[in-house]
Amino acid sequence: MELNKNQKKAVFEYDGNCVVVASPGTGKTKTLVARAQNKMESLPRNQVLVLITYTNAAANEIASRLINSKSIFIGTIHSFCLEYILRPFSWINKWFIPRVISDEQVSDFIEQNTDIRGQDGNTNIIEELGKIKRRLDGSWNENVEWNLTIPLKVVAERYSTYKKDLKVIDFNEILYRSYKLICSYPFISTSVSAKCYEILVDEFQDTNEFQYEIFKIINNVGLSSFFLVGDPKQRIFTFAGAIEDAFERAKEDFRAKCYNLTEAYRSTDNIVNTYSCLFDDHPLVENKSEWSNIPVEVKIIETTKDSNSKIVEDILNRLNNHWKVKPDEIAILSTSWFSAYSLSKDLRRKFPLVGLGALPHKYISNSTMSLLKELSKYRVNSTIENLRAIKRSVEVHLLENNLEISDNNINKATNYLITEFLKLDINKS
């Protein structure tokens, strides 16, 4: 794997804790994979390398780039907490072995609580339930934009009781329970640190308070190193609780050595220059892309929440009518899931949309969506890498649902899923 000067420094120069600030297109994933491969060479037999990503899809992408991933745990922070904290140690607080709440159970809760309604007809109650989170002290975090007619605390208590009766938890509670355990019982953090040779964290800018504290407690044991990668200027999950100063805090709390990746390989000069102007306190980005001279025009238009959809609609009309750009050649990106969905709802009546918001929303769990995506990839390209990705998605789905079966049966389940999926006629509506 060929690396540039800054990437080599981040990968090879220092074995201890590292913070890597990676500007867009500078090879963040490449550097992360190279670091993992380098650490694999000295990995003790009884330890694992941990690579934490923000989504299951990202985990599968990184896994596909690793030559040998047998001794590497690759998954989301929730999967990590289930595997190394909650499943082994829930018995201490007499908690049931956790199983993640299903889509149907969430829907049943809404159906059973008919008085829980949105403030308007466009409110998605499932999204609102996802905003229910605890603070580190266990109290409910009510500092959110709440769009239900009943106060957050009332809904939170009712939802908590419902989950307790079913012996299930949601993703927010996975982090809260893991934090409570690892904070209260030092031998748990010692156990996790002794097991994990190095913990590599992708998209570190989107780390929330619970994740950060869990990492910090593990780090304080001193048996694991951390490799924290991301870009503070790409922090897009503030709605999910991402902390503002994760990188600055990590430099001090983890006593980490800092590296900057500043050579961009996938953009044009105009885009890179605009990025540099928007973030003048960011390390200077040098564009080395083979597409650097493509004449891309960049315009910055300030909008408000109320005017956003109208301005985007005007731009789409101008592209379509004046410049004759086809709808399937236009992409709309957003800094958050919520704003993308809201925008899509406003536009789908006038434009043929594909993707989020194209049709009325139906919630699908992260692991289920990831599994469907990997099956679709395998249908198009039946490579060994895509086959492994399907198996990984099956394993994540089992982990979330607290199902333990043998590796042989996982292989059988994977083969059965592929066989049945390939029988489907995807051309039928």
Describe the protein's architecture and organization.
The protein contains 17 helices and 8 strands. Helix content is 48%, strand content 9%. It has 429 residues and is α/β, with parallel strands linked by helices. Among the domains are: 5-87 and 175-261, P-loop containing nucleotide triphosphate hydrolases (Rossmann fold), CATH 3.40.50.300; 101-168, no CATH class; 366-423, no CATH class. The strands form 2 sheets. Strands 3-2-4-5-1-6 form a 6-stranded parallel β-sheet, with helices on both faces.
Layout: helices, strands, pairs:
Elements: H1 5-13, E1 18-22, H2 28-40, E2 48-53, H3 56-65, E3 72-76, H4 77-89, H5 103-112, H6 125-130, H7 152-166, H8 171-184, H9 186-195, E4 196-201, H10 209-221, E5 225-230, H11 246-253, E6 257-261, E7 263-264, H12 269-278, E8 286-287, H13 308-321, H14 337-347, H15 366-380, H16 384-400, H17 407-423
Parallel strand pairs: 1-5, 1-6, 2-3, 2-4, 4-5, 7-8
Helix pairs in contact: 1-2, 3-16, 4-8, 8-9, 8-10, 9-10, 15-16, 15-17, 16-17
Keyphrases for this structure?
429 residues; alpha/beta; single chain; two-stranded parallel sheet
What is the count of helical runs?
17
Name the CATH architecture of the domain at 5-87 and 175-261. Answer: 3-Layer(aba) Sandwich
Estimate percent helicity. Answer: 40-55%
Over the alpha carbons, how many angstroms does the gyration radius reach? 23 Å
* Terminus-to-terminus distance: 44 Å
Low-confidence stretches: 358-365
Q: Strand content of the residues, in percent?
A: 5-15%
User: What's the CATH H-level superfamily name of the domain at 5-87 and 175-261?
Assistant: P-loop containing nucleotide triphosphate hydrolases
Structural class call reads alpha/beta
Biggest β-sheet: strands ordered side by side in the sheet: 3-2-4-5-1-6
